[in-house]
User: Which sequence fits this backbone?
C-alpha cells in the first residue's frame, strides 16, 4: 500500500449488522441460528479490521428498540453477548484490542453490566483496535441522556447555558473521545440508520450491502473500505480544501 492510499484509510468504521433473521429464514432455521452465525461474522470482521490497521470499529449489536422483539429472541441475544464476552475477551486482550461499550447500561441486568465493565477494565490500556459494541444503544436515548446531564449541571450552577456548544454535547455522549465514524456500513439491503449514531453520522459516508450479516466476509469488508477510499469528502467545503481548513 502506498502512503497516499494509507492516508485515506478510514479511522473509524461503524457497522449496522442486519439480516441475521432473514439469513436463518432463508435456510428454514430458527432466528437464533442466524444470530449465532452473526457472531462468527463479528470475529471475522474484528480480525479484518485489525489487519488493515483500523483504529475504531463500532458494531451495532442490540438497539434500545430491540426489546420490542419476542422475549425468547431478546433472551437469546443477551445470552449471545454474554457468551461472546466470556469466550472472546481473553483473545481480544491478547490481540491488544481495547473494548468499549456504548448504550444505556442502567437498562441492563447486573450480571451483564459487570461483564461489560470487566471487558472495558481489562482492555483499557490496549493500543491496537478499539472495538466499540453498541448494546441497548439508541441514538435519541443517548442524546437525551447527554441533554439531561447538561441540564443538571446548569441547574446546579456548574455550567452556563451559553457553553452548550456542539462540542459540549459531543463530550457528553457515550462516544466521548471517539472520533465520528468515517464510514457506516449496513448489511441486508436495508437503507436506514434505525436510531444509530445520529449525531455522530453528520458527515459519515454510507455503504449499503445486500448480503445478510452472517455472510459478511473479510473480502466484503475490504471492498467497502476500497469504495470508501474513492469517495470525495467535502465537509461543506470544496474538493481538496478540507485538509487546508483543518477539519
Ligand atoms: C440483526 O439481525 C441483529 C439484531 C438486530 C439484533 P436481525 O435480527 O435484525 O435480522 P432481520 O433484519 O430480522 O433479518
Ligand atoms: C438495527 O437493526 C439494530 C441492530 C443491527 C442491532 P433492526 O433490524 O433492529 O432495524 P429495523 O427495525 O429493521 O429498522
Ligand atoms: Mg433487522
Assistant:
Amino acid at each position: 500500500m502506498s502512503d497516499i492510499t494509507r492516508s485515506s484509510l478510514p479511522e473509524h468504521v461503524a457497522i449496522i449488522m442486519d439480516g441475521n433473521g432473514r439469513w436463518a429464514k432463508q435456510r428454514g432455521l430458527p432466528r437464533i441460528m442466524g444470530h449465532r452465525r452473526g457472531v462468527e461474522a463479528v470475529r471475522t470482521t474484528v480480525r479484518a479490521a485489525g489487519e488493515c490497521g483500523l483504529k475504531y470499529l463500532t458494531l451495532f449489536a442490540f438497539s434500545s428498540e430491540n426489546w420490542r422483539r419476542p422475549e425468547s429472541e431478546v433472551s437469546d441475544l443477551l445470552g449471545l453477548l454474554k457468551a461472546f464476552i466470556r469466550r472472546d475477551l481473553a483473545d481480544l486482550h491478547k490481540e491488544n484490542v481495547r473494548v468499549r461499550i456504548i448504550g444505556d447500561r442502567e437498562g441492563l441486568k447486573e450480571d451483564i453490566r459487570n461483564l461489560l465493565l470487566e471487558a472495558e477494565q481489562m482492555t483499557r490500556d490496549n493500543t491496537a483496535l478499539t472495538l466499540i459494541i453498541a448494546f441497548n444503544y439508541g441514538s435519541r436515548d443517548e442524546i437525551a441522556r447527554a441533554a439531561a446531564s447538561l441540564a443538571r449541571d446548569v441547574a446546579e450552577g456548574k455550567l452556563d447555558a451559553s457553553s452548550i456548544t456542539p462540542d459540549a454535547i459531543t463530550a457528553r455522549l457515550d462516544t466521548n473521545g471517539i472520533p465520528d465514524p468515517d464510514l457506516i456500513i449496513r448489511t441486508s439491503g436495508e437503507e436506514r440508520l434505525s436510531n444509530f449514531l445520529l449525531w455522530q453520522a453528520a458527515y459519515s459516508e454510507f455503504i449499503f450491502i445486500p448480503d445478510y450479516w452472517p455472510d459478511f466476509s473479510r473480502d466484503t469488508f475490504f471492498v467497502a473500505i476500497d469504495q470508501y477510499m474513492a469517495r470525495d469528502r467535502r465537509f461543506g467545503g470544496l474538493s481538496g480544501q478540507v485538509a487546508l481548513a483543518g477539519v
Notes: Residues 16-18, 60-63, 66, 190, 192, 194 surround IPE (ligand 2) (CB under 6 Å).
